[in-house]
Every structure is written in C-alpha cells, then in structure tokens.
Amino acid sequence: MNTTLAADNKKYSFQTALSLYNQHAFAESANAFDQVLSNSLTNANLCYYAALANWQCHRIVRANQLFTYIVTNFSGSQEATYAQRMLSSQAKKTQVSETTDNENELPATIKNGLPSDMRALLQTDAGKAVLKQFMKEQSANLEVIRNAEQQGTLPTHSLLPQNAPVRPQHSTGNERPFSAADIARDGAGGIDQSRYPNCWFEASMSALAQLPRGQKLLADTIRYGLTGGYIVRFKNDGVEYKVSEEDMANSGIYDKALWASIIENAELKKFPNNAGANGSDADQSRLEIGLGSITGCKAEVIYPSSCDTQELSAFIGGAVKSQNPIVAATFGIPQLMSVTPLVIPSHAYSIIDFDPSKQLVTIRNPHGSRSQRFQLPSDPQHLEFEQLNDGLFKMSLSNVQKYFHSLARSFI
Predict the structure, then answer these.
(1) Which CA distances in Å does 107 have to 119, 161, 190?
(2) Three-state secondary-structure class, residue 132
(3) Of 137, 153, 257, 298, whose CB is crowded by the most CB atoms within 10 A?
(4) Domain count for the chain
C-alpha cells in the first residue's frame, strides 16, 4: 500500500501527529500520520486517525484509501465500523450528486428571472459549483416547478433567496444591510457549515444568532462596501475585510442566510487555513478565539470531565439564563471510542438552551440541516439523549461530561 510521506524532514511520532490533529492543523497532521504509517500499518487506531486527518484537509482519495484499508484489514474493530460509516456516507452523497446532475438545468421560470450578470456568473466554474449545491438541496422543490411549467401553472412561492437587502442608491459605505431583526428571523438556523473546517467559528456565530445582543453584534459586523459588495469588521480588529459577490461564488459557501455567508467569507480572510485560530501565541482554545473575534470579549473556559454536575449546571445555566453565548468542543476519537456515537469527534457545537429540572442541554451542530444524526437505543424515553432536526439534540449533563472536552462562554 503506497503512503504519502511528509514533505519535510521532521521526524514525527504518533503523539505529535495526534497533537497536531487536536489543534486542527489537519494538513500537517496528515503528513505526520503518513510518515508514521510508512513504518507501520498494523495499528487500526493510527490508520483511522490518518484517514480522518486526510479527510479534514480534503485529501479525499487518500482518506478513502485508508478507510478501505481499515475495513479490509481490521474487520470487526470499532475503527472498521467508523471507517465503513464514512465510506457509506460519501457513497450516498455521490449517488445524490449523480442524480442531481441529470437535472442540471434550472427551470425556465427561475432562469429567466435572473439578472443578466447573475446568469453570466453561473457560467463560471465557481458559479456552477454554487448552482450544483443549490439544486442538490432544492431538488424536490425544483421538481415541483418543472411539473408546474409543463402543466401551465406556476407555484406561488419562490426558491430564490429573498433576504438579499436592497442597497441604498447613494451609499456612503456606512449603511448596514442587515438589522438585528433580520438576524433574529433566521437565528441559528441561518448557519450551515459546509466544506471548511471552521466549526469553532460557525458554532460561535450560531450561538450569537440566537441571542438579542448577539444578533445586534452580528448585524453591526456588516456594512455595504463603497464600490460594491460588503465590508466585514470584527470586534477589536482594525482590518476591514471586503467580501464581493465573486468571493462568495468562489468560496462555495452556501449558508441558508446571506449574512452568515458574508461573515463566514470574511472569517476565511481573517483566518486563512485556520491560521491564528489558536491565538497569536498558539496557546488559546479555538472556542475562545471564535467567540472573541465576534464579541470582542474574553471567553471563560471549563472542562466538563474535571468538574461536578453542579458546577457544570451553573456554568451552562448562567450563560443561558443571562442570554450570553456558550459553545462546546467534543473529545477526539480515542476518548470517544468506548461510548455510543452521539457526536462528531473533535467538533465544535453551540449550546442553545438548558432545562435544569431535567438536567438536559439543547445543543446545535453548525452543520445544521446537513448534520449527521445519532440515536441512543438504550434510552427510549430520551432521558439522556434526543435527536432533533436542523442539527439540534438534547443531552444530559452526565453525557456532556463524557462527550465534551471543553466549554467556553462570553458575557457580552
């Protein structure tokens, strides 16, 4: 089996590669794991982590090669179970994509309603990628329109985004395209993290979108650009990040809400390839950086497995009751191997609500409608876990201690 060796001359160990993975330095982690693998392919856990690191930095062919190797050579192991799930999930996505490709034309009703500049944009590679994603997600509704066109009737609703604000005719560059009320209408549901490994930021944005003060902060972050597009300015950051329509098309970001797509595009410019996501000295939690970059406030961090349920309840309850943002990060694969899969390893989530009487925390995956769903068969009454829609689920405090490595909150 061929392996991709690290491009540099560093000598890596499994622990070094794992540390890089936990820091979300996925490309370097993948190189490190592959170097370790060049000496040994007999460890299922090592192979699985190598596959995950490659998958996270979009080296999909290499990742699938390793997933397949694990399924073939470590049959019956928990790693093989996880690897098969990854392969099956990707196969389903490919099948959906191929089905969508057969219907690669927009219905005339929609196409004819597009302005000429947007129709031209859809002829570019970036525009085609955005269109493909749109058609995949709206396939059922597009079929309704096609049938209506054939029958001579039209649906009464529109599939095109209706939340694009109208730019003032004489803009000075100071006008805000979105109000707090606009953000509130979408709430956390406006965020759907897609192909970029920036869950630490998307979870923070999702948490803030649920809160009145957070909604104002997000709205105040965006204004119109003087020469078109938008300007995003993060708290305590003197840099102005310009986000053009071309930027949004090229990035392939397709959040449900336009304001979320604009802010995420600016985040990619502020933290390219997650550079600086652990602070200037690389000694901070990404949860801290995610909250701080939007709120401008320092975050407080605790570790659920190191505190009792009373302390954890007070930490979560205090943030929820005072309507302040709180986010959480899960453990990695090694710590979660022995428990029922209920969360994505090494992933950030938003805490949306807390019921102290039932000791249940409502949590949201920033993947939103694209979120992987889980179930706990041993808990039919949903006293410990309940899967909801749009990435939401409820989890007991005791399970939060098992599954989540750290929590961070800011008072804004």
Answers:
(1) 13, 16, 25
(2) helix
(3) 257
(4) 3
pLDDT in tens, 41-87: 678 888 888 998 888 888 888 888 999 998 998 888 878 888 888 88
CB atoms within 10 A of CB 319: 23
Structure tokens at 158: 């529109």
Confidence at residue 317, expressed as pLDDT on a 0 to 100 scale? 96
- The DSSP result for 14-34, as a single string, is HHHHHHHHHTT-HHHHHHHHH
Tokens of 39: 């000496």
Mean pLDDT to the nearest integer, 279-297: 88
What does the block give as tokens for 321? 């009751």
Residue listed under structure tokens 């606009």: 182
What phi and psi, each to the nearest 5 degrees, are found at residue 399?
Answer: -75, -30
Structure tokens at 52: 């995950």
For residues 214 and 233, give the distance between their C-alpha atoms in angstroms, rounded to a whole number. 15
How many beta carbons lie within 10 A of that of residue 405, not counting itself? 19
Q: Which two tokens stand for residue 312?
A: 């954890």
- Order across the sheet with 392-396: list the strands: 300-302, 404-409, 326-330, 348-355, 360-364, 392-396, 385-387
Residue indicated by tokens 């929820």:
320
Contact 145, 110 (CB under 8 A): yes
Contact criterion met (CB below 8 Å) for 357 and 397: no
Same domain, 133 and 89: no
Q: How far apart are the first and last CA of the chain?
A: 53
Measured CA to CA in angstroms, residue 152 lies from 109, 144, 147, 155, 158 at distances of 11, 12, 9, 10, 17
Residue 327 main-chain phi, psi, to 5 deg? -130, 165
Instruction: Give the structural domain span for 358.
Output: 300-409
Distance of alpha carbon 297 from alpha carbon 280, whole angstroms: 16
The one-letter amino acid code at 220 reads: D
CATH number at residue 22: 1.25.40.10
